[in-house]
Amino acid sequence: MKVLYIGGAGRTGSTLLERLLGQADGVFAGGEMTFLWYALVGGGRCSCQQALTDCPVWSPVVSRALADTTLTPADLVALRGRYWSLHLPLMIVPGVHRALLRRLGPYREVVARTYRELRAETDSRLIVDASKEPHYSAILDSLPDLEVYFLHLVRDPRAVAHSWSRRKVHGGFGPEHGMPLRGLVSSAVYYWVSNVAAEAIWRSRPDRYLRVRYEDLMADPEGTLASIWEFAGEPVDTSFLAGRRATIGPLHTAWGNPNRFERGEIELQADDEWRREMTWWRRVISAALTWPLLWRYGYREG
Predict the structure, then answer these.
(1) Domain spanning 2-296, CATH class
(2) Is it the case that residue 91 has pLDDT exceeding 90?
(3) 94 Cβ partners below 8 Å, 6+ apart?
């Protein structure tokens, strides 16, 4: 069962990329599936606008995934907390990663069943998971049923820092729920941890690792998407593109950026608001905190 995993830091355009990939025939875009159980506990909504418990896709998938267990979504949220981002540094210690996986107990089997049921329910060849968290990709990679391809999405760290400073309504829990904010230091630390961990876990496996820049996707949507499909071993499908415009049909993403609820025709244009609105001193601080990665990923101007 093939999974295309969009990994790296948040606020890099992963939800948009996932929506584009989800338009291809035989592909199911599931959203940030690591947060599925958290969304169920909180009464979250699918991008089809229905509650996950009423969604025609997620409702039967979750029911069957939990059919042979007494575990509840709240139990799975608690189990997931046994292997979190704070544990990433321990993964380099021999044997610790396997020990951390054992700490998850029945969580991994429920996750495996969820992907199996999702494939059966949607009749899809490929599942796109935009969870981004490198440590969650390691959990998926440990499941023998899954063939994980890691798509490392990066964006200029100054743009990422600016995006984290903007207030956004989550959408999945209603208008009163805002998305978290991050300051310059917090954003930089998150950027470092997410991207370094992504490379540490996956870069040594070139057949399963591909790095893509958000800015390149916006500059050449058709070419970038074609390279992604070739990486995943799937037929190239850009039939929903017309130049720089894309037609987005209905999807069933369980969690993600608020734009997952939008559908119809959209213009693919880079969000460069940070260049106009970010003060010079915030740019300098953000660049200073992330400059090795800024240079590594080709962001040497601006």
Answers:
(1) alpha beta
(2) no
(3) none
